[in-house]
Amino acid sequence: MWVLPFLLLVPNIALDITELLYSPWARITNALLPFGLYLLASAWGARIGRKILFFIPLMVLCAFQIVLLFLYGEAIIAIDMFLNVATTNVHEAGELLANLGPAIVTVLALYLPLIAAGIWAEVRKARVPRRMLVVGRRTGLVVTLLGLASFGLAFTAPDGYRPLRQLFPANVIYNMVEATERTAVSSAYPEASAGYKFHCMDADTVQAYAGQVVVMVVGETSRAGHWSLGGYERKTTPRLEARDHLVFFPRTLSESNTTHKSVPLMLSHLTAEEFGDSAYVAGSVVDAFHEAGYATAWISNQAHNHSLIDFYSSRADDTDYLCDAHPVDDDIIYDTALAPRLKMFIDSQEPSRKLFIVVHTYGSHFNYKERYAQEDAMFHPDNSVAASRSNREELINAYDNSILATDKALDALIEVLEESGRPSVMVYAADHGEDIFDDSRDRFLHASPNPTYYQIHVPMFVWMTDGFASTHPRERRALEENSGKNVSSSESVFHTLVSLADLRLPVYNSALALSSDHYQEPRRRYLNDYDESVPLVKSGLHKEDLQMLDKMNISTK
User: N or C: which end of the chain has fewer CB within 10 A?
Assistant: First the structure.
């Protein structure tokens, strides 16, 4: 009767320690109110086994929360975390779970014995003595009343109190409901967006533009700080560095650290302020180019995940998911396989037809060692994939090898475009970065409820063929002039693609296009878990992140 409430309270105590923004009264409420209610429920009837089994769903939430704290060191289970579970393929999930051994062992040690005791008590029809029930009810009532008093006082804090965001498990249950609603809204996207029109027109009238190719490459889990193209001490991007007409943007940030939001932000005209409900009715860059008369294609090394990304791809004239030809989860398909598919599509089209292609890579998604062929590995040792600080050297070696593999895959795409003989331009931007035990916080992976510098500083570049550069001198010059400025990939990708293709549509904003003379540096924003656009400094960044942004001369305002 007493053990059950205490074990259910473990996440609350942990969150009171990790959440720096909780006020003192919020911390007290987070401990007293749930404990009082748990104890009242535990002492309400004598058949304690039933009570334990009744709380199994809540134990699952507690276990999920504890694992999250092991992984990120802070924050409740976010809406995006539930959505990530729904949109992550089995292979990715297996790679992650294989490296969460200590966390999984901890939650099993906490809750499995309790569940076993509950089953034993129910089979034996064990009953709590009446005297103990009375003590439990009285104690529970007193603690609950104290919790209610602190609940009221919590609202007097300078920043107020938001129980649906700060009180476990109410906040997690609320987030589950929100995630379910977002999934339903996302599933309705094909019908809701069917009538959306950009009213887009192709303004190109120059004959030399005939047959031009515009390619958007979506990178995955790539840290700008590990690209030698941007100054990293290891040579991780030698092929790209040797390319002419390539402009890199070293001060680029993403406005989300999750794929299912960062990619739609890049491929739509919506800013973080506009994202919200509009994302589920607005068209994507694929629709805009289709309206302009381009033949469109989507070539992906990702798995289908029933998110907005899937729906964007379905609007293309030609959709090619490499995993569809290799349905076995254990099959590893390197990003270098994307170039032959790009060549196949280009070769299948009329030479005078303009083409727009989105290429979605697998990039540097964990497990890093599976992102490259062993013969291409340059940095050793790289064999261990155990997610621990003690193993950081090997993780970094494997990660840097994965960036080398990205360099090779992107260079292969460029080679296909050059060999096609068509005037071509390629824009690359990663969706987000990654934590790899970079500082004392021991953070790992991405998509945490609160972002870090390493998760939002992403690589971005524009490359063009000689033929495209010769017919677009103004855009080429603007790209070079803007290369040292602050950039938001979330805001600029769509408008840069539109500008390079010389399309005309009402939502185009030249102030967001990197290839425009009118480009203006963005206000730094972040799309948080509740789809709210907040100033970057209020996104949950810690002092370590702000110091790194300052070191890289990246604005936070």
Answer: C
Closest CA to 310 of 332, 286, 277, 336: 286
CB 63 within 8 A of CB 107: yes
Q: What average pLDDT does the segment 76-87 reach?
A: 84
460 DSSP β-pair partners: 429
Task: Provide the mean pLDDT of the chain.
Answer: 94
In terms of DSSP H, where are the helices of 242-390? 259-267, 275-278, 285-291, 308-314, 322-325, 338-347
What number of other Cβ atoms are within 10 A of residue 93's Cβ?
13
Q: Are 410 and 430 in contact (CB under 8 A)?
A: no
Q: Position of tokens 């291409």?
A: 376
Q: Helix 56-72 and helix 10-18: axis angle, to 10°? A: 30
Average pLDDT on 198-216 reads: 83
Check if the beta carbon of residue 87 is closer than 8 Å to that of residue 36.
Answer: no
DSSP 109-157: HHHHHHHHHHHHHHHTT----HHHHHHHHHHHHHHHHHHHHHHHHHTTS
Residues in contact with 532: Cβ distance below 8 Å, sequence separation at least 6, in sequence order? none
What's phi and psi for 381, nearest 5 deg?
-80, 155
**Residue 288, φ and ψ in degrees, nearest 5:** -60, -45
Give 251-277 pLDDT, tens digit per residue: 999 999 999 999 999 999 999 999 988
Classify strands 213-219 and 355-360 as parallel, antiparallel or unpaired: parallel
> Kindly report the CA angle at 135 between 133 and 140, in degrees rounded to 5?
95
What contacts 250, CB < 8 A, 6 or more positions away? 224, 230, 231, 483, 484, 552
Distance CA 9, CA 93 (A): 27
The answer to whether 506 and 283 are in contact (CB under 8 A) is no
What distance in Å separates the CA atoms of residue 543 and residue 16, rounded to the nearest whole number?
Answer: 20
With CA atoms as reference, report the closest residue to 494 among 480, 505, 479. Answer: 505
Which of 449, 422, 446 is closest to 527 using CA atoms?
Answer: 449
DSSP assignment string, 24-78: HHHHHHHHHHHHHHHHHHHTSSS-HHHHHHHTHHHHHHHHHHHHHHHHHSS----
Strands 444-445 and 435-436: antiparallel
Handedness of CA 90, 94, 96, 97 (dihedral sign): positive
Which residues have C-beta within 8 Å of that of residue 57, sequence separation ≥ 6?
A: none
Q: Is the peptide bond before 301 cis (omega within 30 degrees of 0)?
A: no
Q: Domains of the chain by range and CATH?
A: 3-185 (no CATH), 206-551 (3.40.720.10)
For residue 384, what pLDDT is reported?
80
pLDDT cut 70: percent of the chain above it: 96
Q: Is 437 left (phi over 0), alpha (psi -120 to 50) or beta?
A: left
d(CA 297, CA 290): 10
Q: Which of 68-77, 126-135, 199-208, 293-302 has the lowest mean pLDDT?
A: 199-208
